[in-house]
Design goal:
With 197 residues, the protein is of the alpha+beta class. 16% of the residues lie in helices and 30% in strands. The protein has two domains: 31 residues; 115 residues, Sandwich (Immunoglobulin-like). It binds dinuclear copper ion.
């Protein structure tokens, strides 16, 4: 049996039909983007706060002794971090549970990513911009915070930890800071590990 070639007009009609279907799909997609960004003010996470990546360590918000967790006047917490090849500075952070925490992070070198495992914190970190993420940790515990953007040979070694403690155990020092080195006084003191030789 020989198949009859389709009538030219029929082919044209089918093609036109599909052009219309695709055009409608494109209109719906573009329309929803325009409406969501204009009316609902829904934007992809964007970093519009700029910073000079070459002077981070010299002056301004991200100098080394200004990094880490600090208590604000309203009781909320701000954590400032620098993501650099191949570490987060500081590489351990202590925050209280049930309190608003704002992460502010930037990079002096290349693009990194910040992800706090088990939470909704997930952002890219770009040199020249400050990425800001707000969250509240509902439970105490320790979260891994790896870099999730390939940033070079040491990428897989680039990670940090976020320790969430009871709000009462989060005791800022005279500068309002809490770090892993001056740990929150935990209700149960850790017994020093004995290593008999
Ligand atoms: Cu930093 Cu990958």
């Amino acid at each position: 049996m020989v198949e009859r070639p389709m009538d030219e007009r029929a082919i044209l009609r089918t093609e036109l039909r599909w052009v219309i279907v695709v055009a409608i799909a494109v209109l719906i997609i573009v329309g929803s983007i325009v409406i969501s960004s204009a009316a609902v003010v829904l934007h992809p996470p964007s970093s519009v706060e700029r910073i000079d990546p070459t002077t981070l360590h010299v002056s301004g918000e991200f100098v080394e002794d200004n990094l880490g967790a600090v208590q604000n006047r309203d009781g909320s917490v701000t954590v400032r971090l620098v993501a650099t090849q191949f570490a987060f500075v500081p590489n351990c952070i202590v925050v209280p549970a049930d309190r608003p925490v704002t992460f502010r992070i930037t990079s002096p070198d290349v693009i990194h990513g910040l992800l706090i495992v088990g939470t909704n914190v997930n952002t890219m970190v770009m040199p020249g911009y400050v990425s800001e993420v707000r969250t509240t940790f509902p439970r105490t515990g320790e979260h891994l915070m790896p870099c999730h953007e390939f940033c070079g040979l040491g990428h897989s070694e680039m990670w940090s930890r976020v320790r969430v403690v009871e709000p009462a155990a989060w005791q800022p020092d005279e500068n309002g800071r809490v770090s892993c080195e001056t740990p929150a006084r935990s209700p149960v003191e850790e017994a020093p590990e004995e290593t008999p030789q």
